[in-house]
Amino acid sequence: MPPLVRRGLLALALIGIGAAAFELYSEQHWNDPIQLIPWGALGALLLAALLVLVPGGRGVVPARVLAVLVLGASLYGVVQHVLTNLATGPLDPRFADTWAALPIYEQIWLAASKQVGSAPTLAPGVLGQTALVLLLATISGPRTGRHAYRR
Prior knowledge:
Elements: H1 3-26, H2 37-52, H3 60-88, H4 104-112, H5 122-137
């Protein structure tokens, strides 16, 4: 991968980390232990981004492991937010009388699209996107040994 593309992907990952941190901070997302999971995920992503910069590509494998763990945390966050929003469906005045009669796929759509509830499903999704960008930055990292690029 050309160094410029790799640096660009790393920059995008760092921007994603900063944006997610800003969102979590502005939402005061630290009121119970489960709300600390995305903060840990951000720390893991930041560490992964730093590991990608280790000379000789020695930090690539640990960076990938951390990014995959964050992908799992992201998926967990999306599911938790959808479930939280689903639980508020019957309490929403617009749907209180009809919620139980709605097909489950419609309830899930309303919860996932935040038409019901206030938990944003996009926020944990951004963590996953940032982890994927970081994984892309590790593809064909610095090569060493007999397979190194000739310059």
